[in-house]
């Protein structure tokens, strides 16, 4: 192992391992963290395995918790600020009995043998243990226990199971999805034997809870290469057991605006969301945005072109049903459905008004409107068009910002008419409006004056003025407001390089 990769091991992890060793136990890093260290990545979580039993682990540390059937003890480290180090999981070596439900072992037996523990693991790249030997503070060296040649597989970028492939996948059928995820996450190739076993074991996904399938599928979408993950899922026959509706787009030709069929377009749309590091909701919306095209496709008698009228409406229903079946949270479903439903918004800025844009913002919500714009960008790139942000879309964005900005009016003041009546002792009359507009004129000149204490003090001073003088101040405020409005709109349009 490269020395610089060992240096990625934090003091907190080495300290936990050293504590166990000082108590007379063995302690090894194991699983994904060792794999990531060998690849040269900083692990996001750390797992230690030991020949100590759970009660012996608990007795070795001041603060722990133990809330599972598999012997895993969480060691709490309150002194670190790094989230991944606040809890370090330690699991005894263990042997597992038969998996009769394709989900969990029927029983777990703690062991004193590390090799036996590594034998039960899923893939060779995850069946490597690293013994940490402490040198000076902050520097660690170590050696590998690698009976299944996982390090060689990492070097060759090969993903394969430990031992008999079909047997390993049948133990926990979720491993078929995990294999797809690891392959696209790491950029590895699944070897032929494991691929064939995945094809055979995939039907066992029916025995896995929807929640576990959802979580693993979401991890595939959140990799940097969801296009590869979705392609591999379809190739291995996994996708029909997760989201069968999506692969119905294979071979479904589109109109001349598209370079690809629905399937390829969908893959590229999702991939662009990943390239942009956009969140799960946008990636799911990208996955479902054209899911109803196969169902709604018709050929125009006039042009001979394929049409997909209403596919966004039907697609929203498809997304709602599919995501609910996978037990996604309601908040996630609601947002994805909304994005799919409105992704075909009319964006010809030569033909739409600000009021039309305002209606779209009201339907989608201020909190989601920019994600809808991002989905449109993904959709464009997915068609094979080179420009993700053409003039028309930039103009539309400027119109959104224009309708969403806070209006310049007396409503922005930290005082209202009721309070002016109270502090000036003037009965309701047009003069109250004059005072408010006079106050607005001052605030537009000096925004820092928009505080209740100042305005409540200033209002009685203005009340002394005559109506004509106050009305004049109001007119000046209106003129200044119009100038500020024009300035703001100009700045918005310059921001998007539009006129």
TrEMBL record:
<dbReference type="InterPro" id="IPR032828">
    <property type="entry name" value="PolyA_RNA-bd"/>
</dbReference>
<keyword id="KW-0547">Nucleotide-binding</keyword>
<protein>
    <recommendedName>
        <fullName>HD/PDEase domain-containing protein</fullName>
    </recommendedName>
</protein>
<dbReference type="InterPro" id="IPR002646">
    <property type="entry name" value="PolA_pol_head_dom"/>
</dbReference>
<dbReference type="GO" id="GO:0008033">
    <property type="term" value="P:tRNA processing"/>
</dbReference>
<dbReference type="GO" id="GO:0000166">
    <property type="term" value="F:nucleotide binding"/>
</dbReference>
<dbReference type="Pfam" id="PF01966">
    <property type="entry name" value="HD"/>
</dbReference>
<dbReference type="InterPro" id="IPR003607">
    <property type="entry name" value="HD/PDEase_dom"/>
</dbReference>
<dbReference type="InterPro" id="IPR050124">
    <property type="entry name" value="tRNA_CCA-adding_enzyme"/>
</dbReference>
<keyword id="KW-0460">Magnesium</keyword>
<keyword id="KW-0819">tRNA processing</keyword>
<dbReference type="GO" id="GO:0003723">
    <property type="term" value="F:RNA binding"/>
</dbReference>
<feature type="domain" description="HD/PDEase">
    <location>
        <begin position="258"/>
        <end position="372"/>
    </location>
</feature>
<keyword id="KW-0548">Nucleotidyltransferase</keyword>
<dbReference type="InterPro" id="IPR006674">
    <property type="entry name" value="HD_domain"/>
</dbReference>
<dbReference type="InterPro" id="IPR043519">
    <property type="entry name" value="NT_sf"/>
</dbReference>
<keyword id="KW-0694">RNA-binding</keyword>
<keyword id="KW-0479">Metal-binding</keyword>
<comment type="similarity">
    <text>Belongs to the tRNA nucleotidyltransferase/poly(A) polymerase family.</text>
</comment>
<dbReference type="Pfam" id="PF01743">
    <property type="entry name" value="PolyA_pol"/>
</dbReference>
<dbReference type="Pfam" id="PF12627">
    <property type="entry name" value="PolyA_pol_RNAbd"/>
</dbReference>
<dbReference type="GO" id="GO:0046872">
    <property type="term" value="F:metal ion binding"/>
</dbReference>
<dbReference type="GO" id="GO:0016779">
    <property type="term" value="F:nucleotidyltransferase activity"/>
</dbReference>
<keyword id="KW-0808">Transferase</keyword>
